[in-house]
Amino acid sequence: MIYSENVWVCLAVPLLMTLFFLRDKARQFVLNFLLGMAACLLGAYVSGFVDAASGLGVEDTAIFISPVVEEVMKFLPLLFYFLMFDPDDDHLILAAVGIGAGFASFENICSMIVSGTESLGFLLIRGLAVGVMHIVSVFAMTMGLVIARRFQALRLSSTLGALSLSMLFHGVYNLLVSKSGVTSWIGYVLPLLTALMLFLALRRLRSEE
Amino acid sequence: MPDHLLTLIPVCIQIAVLTVLLQLSMRLIRESDRAIHAVFLTFILSLWLLTDLYWVIYEFMRPDSRMPFAANEIGEAAVFLLDGAMLASLVCGWKGARIQTVSALAFAVCNVALWVAWSGEWVDDLFIGAAYAGFLYQVVRALTFHHALKPWEWVALGAGCALLILGQALTFFAPEGAKAGLDTGCSVLLALGTVCWAVKAIFARRRNAEPVTLLCLVFALIAWVVTAKYMSADAWYAVFMVCETLCMPMLYGAVRKVVAA
Predict the structure, then answer these.
(1) Under an 8 A CB cutoff, do A175 and B51 touch?
(2) Minimal Cα distance from A148: which residue of B?
């Protein structure tokens, strides 16, 4: 067991300090990065509670419940920003990427504390897989919101649709990497491939503006 | 054929069909100058595809265990919500239809009660059931608004639904021999209903009915097939899964007509 809230405080303090010296988009990114880290911490608490309450077991909770909880935790600050401030697409995407990066970084740090830092190969795979996956899933969610808003299809259902898209993507990843072998390698490659596809989709969307 | 293959093969076919339709629907967004129905369709198909993929991966990796509450159930509920939202966009005003909508909600509640009784999975069934009830409500509302069914067809539909619920509820109390008979009877009734809805939708298309009416009928067919799928097991489940796959190109075709109109 690690005291992840202590880790969060240690990481958050210097980042909080930078907020005084940064402006505009850089400040927004750091703030969202912090929010992403906080979402990860809260997600871990909620998943732990669900594990204890449901009796599913640690492994099954990580595979089936964590994607749902974690995506909701990432979604809530994003939804708040989206509904309260009605940001343009670029600011929304910046917020999403910041939250995703903060979430992934904090999860990676906690994982490294638990599993050790001896194997660079393992850490690289984790960084490229989990790290990219969190950014991709929150980015896909945001793209759903952006597209729904742009095409005047923004309803409760399309908002929840965007959220469940990211949950399903996260769930598929967790399921694939839950056992070693070919499936886990497919799982590790999946976020990178999806990131490439989303990048192309975003470029196309921007070129249509 | 082993039981899990009986379901796995139709789902894999459905994934292939969904992949093709998803590409077509994305092209439809561009062709239609970003029509809202094309956007909704793309959303629905992509969620449907991911839900199926999740299920297949689960079956492949853990063939012998029952899936707990997972992301694909949320995906299924989101598909129902999006179907409902698309139908809601077809109904511009409210016109009566109290008996039909109340009956649809009652039918949905009975279905959910039966799912809970069969599986004992309260959380999953209530969660999906709420979205399913919303979808049925919107289907009936749209059918009524566009006068897609004649009065005698409403009566026949009501009688069929009541018979189904009664038949399925009786299986809990009937002796073993009668239970199998009741199950088969319900499955035949569900299959007959599927054929009727399919014929109605195909005829509407042939007779150049209003595109919106055609879309409502296709959604009604989907609602019926999904209900049938949830009420069935083993071979019948596979049959209704194939029917559901056949509905997908019909849905794409109907949306294409609405967008072009």
Answers:
(1) no
(2) B39
Asked whether the ipTM of the predicted complex exceeds the cut of 0.85, the reply is no
Q: How many domains does chain B have?
A: 1
Q: How many CB pairs under 8 A join A and B?
A: 94
Could you tell me how far CA B209 lies from the centroid of its own chain? 22
d(CA B203, CA B211): 13
DSSP state of B97: -
Q: Chain A interface residues facing chain B, Cβ-Cβ under 8 Å?
A: 56, 60, 64-65, 67-68, 144, 147-148, 150-153, 155-158, 160-161, 163-165, 167-172, 175-176, 178-179, 183
Distance CA B29, CA B40 (A): 10
Residue A182's Cβ-count burial label (10 Å; 0-12, 13-18, 19+) is exposed
3-state secondary structure of A29: helix
* Residue B32 distance to chain A (closest CA, Å): 11
Shortest Cα–Cα distance, A123 to chain B (Å) = 25
Confidence (pTM)? 0.87
Structural domain harbouring B143: 3-260
B32 touching A (Cβ < 8 Å):
no
What is chain A's pLDDT, residue by residue, as a tens digit (209 residues)? Answer: 778 888 899 999 999 999 888 888 899 999 999 999 999 999 989 988 888 887 778 788 888 888 899 999 999 999 899 888 888 888 888 999 999 999 999 998 988 888 887 788 888 888 888 888 888 888 888 888 887 777 666 677 778 888 888 899 889 998 888 888 888 888 888 888 888 887 887 787 677 66
